[in-house]
């Protein structure tokens, strides 16, 4: 009986780890044909990134260029920001252009 409990606790632990790392890691979002940067942002990003002062989201200065945005969207970060492996080529480029035009940027840190 004791053995069973330890085993099922271990299994529950593994299941939790798989669940936790599974849910934030990868998004299976797929842009529809004719999607634009704006439609992708509204469908895939706006549920987590909300507007601030009329800007669709706020970027840190080091993130405010298309290479950094594309890298972050494709690879995600930590537990919070999922990776979007299906956003590639034109779709991720349109999304980066949309953000560069419509997102705000935090001021550079004075150092
Ligand atoms: C499930 C919630 C969620 C979704 C969906 C999401 N993000 Fe994020 N995003 C986050 C979190 C949380 C962070 C902060 C992660 C960190 O830096 O540790 C983040 C960070 C970012 C950053 C870096 C901002 C900065 O200045 O550091 C960019 C750019 C970004 N997200 C773009 C997007 C785009 C574009 C999409 C849609 C394709 C998207 N996110 C979808 C949660 C999300």
Automatic annotation (TrEMBL):
Q: Where are the transmembrane segments?
A: none
* Record-level Gene Ontology MF annotations: electron transfer activity; heme binding; metal ion binding
Where does the secretion signal sit in this chain? 1-26
Instruction: Name the SUPFAM superfamilies for this protein.
Output: Cytochrome c (SSF46626)
Organism of derivation: Nitrosomonas mobilis
Claim: Signal is one of the keywords in the record: yes
| Name listed for the protein in its UniProt record | Cytochrome c, class I
Domain of life, per UniProt, equals Bacteria
InterPro entries found in the cross-reference section: Cyt_c-like_dom (IPR009056), Cyt_c-like_dom_sf (IPR036909)
Q: Where is the Cytochrome c domain?
A: 32-103
Question: Which keywords, in A-to-Z order, does the entry hold?
Answer: Heme, Iron, Metal-binding, Signal
Tell me the Gene3D superfamilies matching this sequence.
Cytochrome c-like domain
* Pfam families cross-referenced by the UniProt entry: Cytochrome_CBB3
